């Protein structure tokens, strides 16, 4: 399985996803600023993966800081933390990962500085390993939704490249295949930077899963012809009312799926669920450079000087989401709200939909 990120010999090793599928190139660094730039420039992308990267960048920053106490170390880590959090504002996983690292600092203020630095490194490694386990669990639960012979539409890339390994939206596909189900996947290209074409199609081909690449504007026609059985996408942030922020174009797919009576599922690790935000209207939406729209692989495809709006994400309302697949089970979107409003345990609200 391809690894998007790993910690090795005191360095962070990142697969440069901007070079895929033409080249497999890795970046190795001991500088948190390089990690931040890799996140910002999409060399590493996908909500879980950038959360892992942020935690490893934080650990690198800690190793480079000279401090006489853990309190001083914590204070000097505030700037690296701000830098890492600012790289991608929509995905909640970065903030979640940095808060987890800061929590470890707060719990160990009386320990020797070197020991705490080592604990931070181990915590970053643990976040990576836990993510892989989480994705596998999402796959097991999500495979319940897939029947033998199904054709699945996915948008953007929520595979191993977007996570610590195994993927979120692709995990149910991999598990279904392991279970002997014959499935086919349709991956839309995902403009403007073509994560579906460059990454998802490549990953699924490497895994031996039949995949067909389509243009973004082909999905509705295929649904009308009855050639899509279900949709599975990932998420960068799912909020209290069940609204979902994901790659731009996800909302369009959800509207088409609802119009044609096709189930629309969201694979959401709990780390991507933000109970502090009541609705998707309050999710910050990242806007990216216009060159991503006006150029492909450095070649201009638009008139010079044209105005560009390049939103990286959109919000899919909970009413368009059939169910949310987490590592703890499958939930109705309304049950995400219950977590905050009623304080219920996940095991209490898990639903058996099939």
Secondary structure elements and pairings:
Blueprint lengths: L4 E4 L2 E5 L10 E4 L2 H9 L6 H18 L5 H7 L1 H8 L7 H15 L5 H30 L8 E4 L16 H8 L5 E5 L6 H12 L4 E4 L4 H6 L5 E4 L3 E3 L4 E4 L2 H10 L4 E4 L5 E2 L16 H4 E2 L2 E2 L12 E4 L6 E4 L2 E3 L1 H9 L4 H4 L5
Overview in brief:
By secondary structure, this protein is an alpha/beta fold. It has 13 helices and 16 strands.
What's the story with the biggest beta sheet?
7 strands, mixed
What would you report as the Rg, rounded to the nearest angstrom?
20 Å
How far do the termini sit from each other? 30 Å
CATH superfamily of the largest domain: Translation initiation factor eif-2b, domain 2
How do the SSEs run, as a string of H and E? EEEHHHHHHEHEHEHEEEHEEHEEEEEHH
SSE-based structural type = alpha/beta
Low-confidence stretches: 348-354
Shape: globular
Strand order of the largest sheet: 6-5-4-7-10-15-16
Content of β-strand: 15-25%
Count the E strands.
16
CATH fold naming of the largest domain = Rossmann fold
Average pLDDT, all residues: 93
Q: How would you sum up this structure, described in words?
A:
With 354 residues, the protein is of the alpha/beta class. The protein folds into 2 domains: 5-136, Four Helix Bundle (Hemerythrin (Met), subunit A) (Up-down Bundle); 142-349, 3-Layer(aba) Sandwich (Rossmann fold). The protein contains 13 helices and 16 strands. Strands 6-5-4-7-10-15-16 form a 7-stranded mixed sheet, with helices on both faces. Strands 11-8-9-14 form a 4-stranded mixed sheet, with helices on one face. Helix 1 packs antiparallel against helix 2 (47-64), helix 2 (47-64) packs antiparallel against helix 6 (113-142) and helix 5 (93-107) packs across helix 6 (113-142).
């Amino acid at each position: 399985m391809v690894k998007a990120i790993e910690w090795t010999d005191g360095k962070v090793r990142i697969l440069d996803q901007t070079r895929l599928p033409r080249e497999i190139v890795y970046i190795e660094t001991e500088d948190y600023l390089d990690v931040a730039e890799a996140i910002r420039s999409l060399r590493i992308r996908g909500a879980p993966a950038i959360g892992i990267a942020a935690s490893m960048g934080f650990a690198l920053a800690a190793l480079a800081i000279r401090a006489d106490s853990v309190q001083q170390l914590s204070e000097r880590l505030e700037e690296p933390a701000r830098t890492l959090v600012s790289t991608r504002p929509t995905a909640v996983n970065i903030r979640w990962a940095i808060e987890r690292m800061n929590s470890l600092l707060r719990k160990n203020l009386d320990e020797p500085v070197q020991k705490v630095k080592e604990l931070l490194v181990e915590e970053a490694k643990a976040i990576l390993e836990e993510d892989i386990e989480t994705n596998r669990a999402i796959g097991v639960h999500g495979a319940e939704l897939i029947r033998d012979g199904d054709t699945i539409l996915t948008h953007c890339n929520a595979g191993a490249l977007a996570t610590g390994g195994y993927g979120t939206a692709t995990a149910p596909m991999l598990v279904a295949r392991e279970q002997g189900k014959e499935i086919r996947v349709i991956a839309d290209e995902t403009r403007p930077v073509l994560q579906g074409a460059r990454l998802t199609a490549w990953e699924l081909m490497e895994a031996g899963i039949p995949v067909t690449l389509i243009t973004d504007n082909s999905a509705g026609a295929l649904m009308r012809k009855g050639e899509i059985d279900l949709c599975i996408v990932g998420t960068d942030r799912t909020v209290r009312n069940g609204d979902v922020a994901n790659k731009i174009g996800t909302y369009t797919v959800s509207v088409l799926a609802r119009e044609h009576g096709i189930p629309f599922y969201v694979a959401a690790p709990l780390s991507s669920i933000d109970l502090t935000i009541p609705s998707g209207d309050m999710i910050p939406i990242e806007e990216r450079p216009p060159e991503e729209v006006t150029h492909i692989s450095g070649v201009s495809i638009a008139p010079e000087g044209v105005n560009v709006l390049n939103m990286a994400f959109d919000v899919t309302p909970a009413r368009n989401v059939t169910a949310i697949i987490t590592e703890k089970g499958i939930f109705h979107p309304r049950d995400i709200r219950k977590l905050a409003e009623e304080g219920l345990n996940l095991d209490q609200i898990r639903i058996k939909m099939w």
